[in-house]
Design a protein that fits this description.
It is built from 8 helices and 4 strands, in the order H-H-H-H-H-H-E-H-E-E-E-H. By secondary structure, the chain is α+β, with helices and mostly antiparallel strands. Strand 3 and strand 4 form a beta hairpin. It starts with a helix and ends with a helix.
Length: 179
């Protein structure tokens, strides 16, 4: 996350939290981020120096007035006016981090060679809930390079119990062995 993302999203989060809108605002930000990922030209348009700030804000009004909460619309206008709309995704990440911290939610990414079954996902989620004492928001990602096992990424940490990691450890051990 960037400094811009942290500063602006913290202000929005505090305002939303004070008015018990933190969940709604977070959901709207995620929906917008998804839309902007599908249409990256929209962010470029809102960052275009060929349009005045007023024209860019009018584009936001035309597209989102009465469709998103006024705080979200005004937030996007501020980012647009400051020339920071390109940091919108970072702002969403930072907002989610504030929300998750306040609500005891831990976002975990499980990387496996093949998709986890629903039973495996539930079992892993339950186990992580017990270990961390937090509500787990589990995201799964498939990476055939791990060969087998699971790698968990969360809170800047990595727990790696994959076959590829074990093979790397054996390779390092053999390289250090003097015969």
């Amino acid at each position: 996350m960037t400094e811009v993302g942290n500063v602006y999203s913290e202000s929005l989060y505090e305002l939303a939290k004070d008015e018990a809108l933190d969940q709604r605002i977070g959901q709207e930000l995620e929906a917008l981020r998804s839309c902007f990922r599908q249409e990256p030209d929209y962010i470029r348009l809102l960052s275009s120096p060929t349009l005045t700030k007023a024209e860019r804000c009018q584009i936001l009004d035309d597209g989102f007035r009465d469709r998103v909460h006024p705080y979200v619309l005004n937030f996007m206008k501020i980012l647009t006016e400051k020339g920071y709309m390109r940091y919108f995704s970072d702002c969403c990440d930072a907002y989610a981090a504030h929300y998750n911290e306040d609500h005891g939610i831990l976002s975990v990414t499980a990387v496996t060679a093949v998709a986890l079954t629903p039973a495996q996902t539930e079992k892993l989620t339950r186990k992580l809930n017990q270990i961390t004492g937090k509500q787990i928001k589990l995201h799964s990602r498939i990476d055939p390079a791990v060969l087998g096992g699971v790698r968990l990424d969360y809170d800047g940490q990595r727990l790696d119990d994959t076959v590829s990691h074990r093979l790397d450890a054996v390779r390092d051990l053999l390289n250090k062995t003097v015969l």
